[in-house]
């Protein structure tokens, strides 16, 4: 039996054109031999095999394995690469995930990029790949961050300010701020730091402003290097107002006032043996502090960016704190117990734009209390116990735009006229809440309507008298009586005349 060999392409073409070629050969039925019948049979079998092979080539293999499954190390690598790609998608700007990209605000002001992550309940530093641009200011205040580990701010090399106040930070690694060579401002106040190494500050050569107050500093030997750094004269803005919480003999003392030589010295008895944990009874005597006004820097929360703002709400203040920075723009003193605004309370706040003193039960405002606030735009005096505003209180508020006066027991008598007089001279000021609380006949009436009706009635006791008319009538200025008075003044002996401090010139 001989094997039949064929060219698949030739067979395919011959089968395709079978109907074209076969009719051209006119075979007689008598001429068909057994050999030709066998050849035709082989041709049909071959065509069937060729068709089956073509179908097998065209159909996708159902038994092929998917990549990444059941291939050992190669499949594991493929899966790891795929997960990394998906992870990068979550970190990207187009598709942030809840974990990788917290709900922070990205804004630009004066060409600087700010990332505002305040009050987001964060427990760690967000990744730098979350945002489209490199930020210059990162605001992380009022979160739940406890530890700053080495390299915590990797990728934030462009930062110039970092706000970490009001967290739960109790530990800072020596390399936590590594790479922040451009950082100039670091806020760590209102945390739980007991110690901090000088090594943590070395990686920030341009640091000029450091706040460390309201932390329970343990002023023992490990704090020696930090205290020496803070006491360098060129570092006058580093660590101001930070005070010791322990040991008892140093409690309340500022870090900048402590002798660093005494921190690492052990006390010894006359025999030369260490006394161990024994303490000098005189160290336990704490002097009674002298009562002074509260300091604004330690009593309030200060936020530097995008504008300097002091939050003094609900701090139990009974008076305006001292030490308000000159460049502060916004101050919120609401919900305290301030009853009296005294002169020069805001004398240093020359740049102040908004001042909120609402909800304080305030009863009195001195004339010079708001002097110097030439740039103030908004003033909130609502929810207090004001009956009237003393004459001259508002005289320096040339550019005031909004005045809130609601929920005050305004008394509609002659003392309230100054307020309406000032408001009429400043028509651009939007005010609200100026309603009469007493006397009963004017309760609920607007102060503006009360003053208008007061002037309309013009009581007899307010009509000008004859004496007032003589002093104010220009027609009587050149009468004989006035001329006689002037002549008598000129004839008065010179040694009896009182020196005139001012020279009055009358212009008719």
Automatic annotation (TrEMBL):
InterPro entries xrefs: Cys-rich_flank_reg_C (IPR000483), Leu-rich_rpt (IPR001611), Leu-rich_rpt_typical-subtyp (IPR003591), LRR_dom_sf (IPR032675), LRR_TM_domain-containing (IPR050541)
Gene3D superfamilies named in the record: Ribonuclease Inhibitor (3.80.10.10)
GO cellular component: plasma membrane
PROSITE patterns linked to this entry: LRR
A Pfam family reported for this protein in Swiss-Prot or TrEMBL: LRR_8
Keywords: Leucine-rich repeat, Repeat, Signal
Domain LRRCT, residue spans: 215-265, 408-459
Superkingdom in the source lineage: Eukaryota
Sequence segments annotated as region (Disordered): 261-285
Family matches, as SUPFAM superfamilies: L domain-like
SMART domains: LRR_TYP (SM00369), LRRCT (SM00082)
Composition bias type Basic and acidic residues, residue spans: 261-270
Designated name of the protein: Leucine-rich repeat-containing protein 17-like isoform X1
């Amino acid at each position: 039996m001989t094997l039949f060999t064929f060219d698949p392409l030739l067979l395919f073409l011959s089968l395709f054109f079978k109907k074209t070629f076969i009719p051209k050969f006119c075979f007689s039925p008598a001429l068909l031999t057994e050999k030709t019948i066998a050849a035709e049979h082989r041709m049909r079998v071959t065509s069937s095999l060729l068709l089956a092979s073509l179908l097998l080539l065209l159909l996708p293999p159902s038994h092929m394995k998917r990549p990444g499954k059941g291939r050992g190390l190669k499949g594991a690598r493929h899966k790891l690469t795929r997960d990394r790609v998906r992870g990068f998608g979550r970190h990207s700007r187009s598709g942030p995930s809840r974990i990788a990209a917290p709900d922070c605000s990205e804004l630009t002001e004066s060409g600087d990029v700010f990332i505002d992550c305040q009050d987001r309940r964060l427990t760690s530093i967000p990744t730098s790949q979350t945002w489209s641009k490199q930020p210059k200011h990162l605001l992380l205040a009022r979160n739940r961050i406890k530890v700053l580990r080495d390299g915590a701010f990797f990728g934030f090399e462009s930062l110039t300010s970092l706000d970490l106040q009001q967290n739960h930070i109790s530990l800072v690694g020596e390399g936590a701020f590594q790479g922040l060579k451009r950082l100039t401002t670091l806020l760590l106040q209102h945390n739980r730091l007991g110690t901090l190494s000088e090594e943590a500050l070395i990686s920030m050569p341009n640091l000029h402003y450091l706040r460390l107050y309201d932390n329970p500093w343990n002023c023992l030997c490990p704090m020696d290097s930090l205290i020496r750094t803070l006491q360098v004269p060129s570092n006058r803005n580093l660590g101001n107002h930070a005070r010791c919480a322990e040991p008892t003999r140093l409690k309340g003392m500022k870090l900048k006032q402590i002798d660093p030589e005494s921190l690492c010295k052990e006390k010894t008895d006359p025999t030369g043996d260490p006394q161990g944990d024994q303490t000098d009874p005189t160290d336990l005597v704490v002097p009674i502090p002298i009562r002074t006004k509260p300091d604004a820097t330690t009593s309030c929360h200060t936020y530097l960016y995008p504008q300097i703002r002091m939050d003094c709400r609900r701090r139990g203040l009974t008076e305006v704190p001292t030490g308000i920075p000159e460049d502060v723009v916004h101050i919120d003193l609401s919900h305290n117990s301030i009853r009296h605004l005294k002169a020069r309370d805001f004398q240093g706040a020359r740049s102040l734009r908004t001042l909120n003193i609402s909800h304080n039960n305030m009863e009195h405002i001195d004339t010079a209390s708001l002097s110097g606030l030439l740039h103030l735009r908004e003033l909130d005096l609502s929810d207090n116990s004001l009956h009237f505003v003393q004459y001259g209180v508002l005289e320096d508020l040339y550019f005031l735009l909004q005045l809130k006066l609601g929920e005050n027991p305004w008394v509609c008598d002659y003392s309230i006229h100054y307020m309406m007089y000032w408001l009429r001279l400043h028509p651009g000021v939007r005010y609200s809440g100026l309603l009469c609380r007493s006397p009963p006949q004017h309760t609920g009436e607007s102060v503006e309507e009360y003053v208008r009706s007061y002037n309309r009635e013009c009581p007899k006791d307010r009509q000008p008298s004859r004496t007032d008319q003589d002093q104010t009538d220009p027609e009587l200025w050149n009468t004989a009586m006035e001329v006689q008075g002037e002549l008598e003044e000129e004839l008065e002996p010179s040694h009896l005349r009182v020196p005139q401090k001012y020279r009055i010139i009358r212009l008719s």
